[in-house]
Write a structure and sequence with these properties.
Helix content is about 75%, strand content about 0%. It contains nine helices and no strands. Keywords: DNA-binding, Transcription, Transcription regulation. Pfam families: TetR_C_31, TetR_N. This is TetR/AcrR family transcriptional regulator.
């Protein structure tokens, strides 16, 4: 096989690991299995990431960045406060519906990282990155619309992400389209109310 530069091989291995573990589960994601998925020597994986934990760290970082990018691209730049939160929630929910395997894999990796000291910093970075981006988007929407926040943006962001994690788990465990949309609307309404808006049902696009 022709030599492939490390800068090119690394993203190939990360994508191969994501594809394999999304299909087979984290427990099956050995360096040998990932190497076989891409058709390279096991030593290539170790050379690129050092350890299995190093590979898992890269996979978590990539999954997190993929989700953040999708949400940032969906964030409106000229919408009202409630509409902005509704659009962000709809964009995130679309990733759950269209990429359930990726969300399940990220959940599995999160649980794995809780018991793996070598991944503690990666887990912290994952949650910090998601919280910071969410808080920034909330702050920008509030400032754009002259919306005073009743709680710090980070507190609202943490509430938003915690609630969304719960809805995602329900979707993965027991999907119910009608109930999910109703719960999503109620959830966004609660976030708006927490931020200082009106306590009423906020419409969320059904995608």
């Amino acid at each position: 096989m022709a030599h492939v530069p490390a800068a090119e091989r690394r993203p190939q291995l990360i994508r191969a690991a994501i594809d394999y573990m999304a299909r087979e589960g984290v427990a099956a994601g050995s360096t040998r299995a990932i190497a076989a998925e891409l058709g390279v020597a096991q030593a290539t994986v170790h050379y690129t990431f050092g350890t299995k934990e190093g590979l898992y760290r890269a996979v978590m970082e990539q999954l997190t960045q993929d989700l953040i990018t999708q949400v940032e691209e969906a964030a409106p730049t000229d919408a009202g406060f409630e509409e902005t939160l509704s659009t962000l929630a709809a964009a995130l929910w679309r990733t759950v519906r269209e990429q359930p395997a990726s969300h399940q894999l990220l959940t599995e990796l999160t649980m794995f990282a809780l018991r793996t000291p070598a991944l503690s910093e990666t887990l912290e970075s994952h949650f910090r990155g998601a919280t910071d981006v969410t808080a920034r988007l909330i702050t920008e929407a509030a400032e754009r619309n002259g919306q005073p926040l009743a709680q710090p943006a980070e507190t609202i962001a943490r509430f938003f992400l915690a609630g969304f994690d719960g809805l995602t788990t329900q979707r993965l465990s027991h999907p119910d389209e009608d109930a999910e949309h109703t719960c999503l609307q109620a959830f966004v309404s609660a976030v708006v109310a927490m931020a200082g808006g009106r306590l009423e049902l906020v419409s969320v696009p059904a995608n």
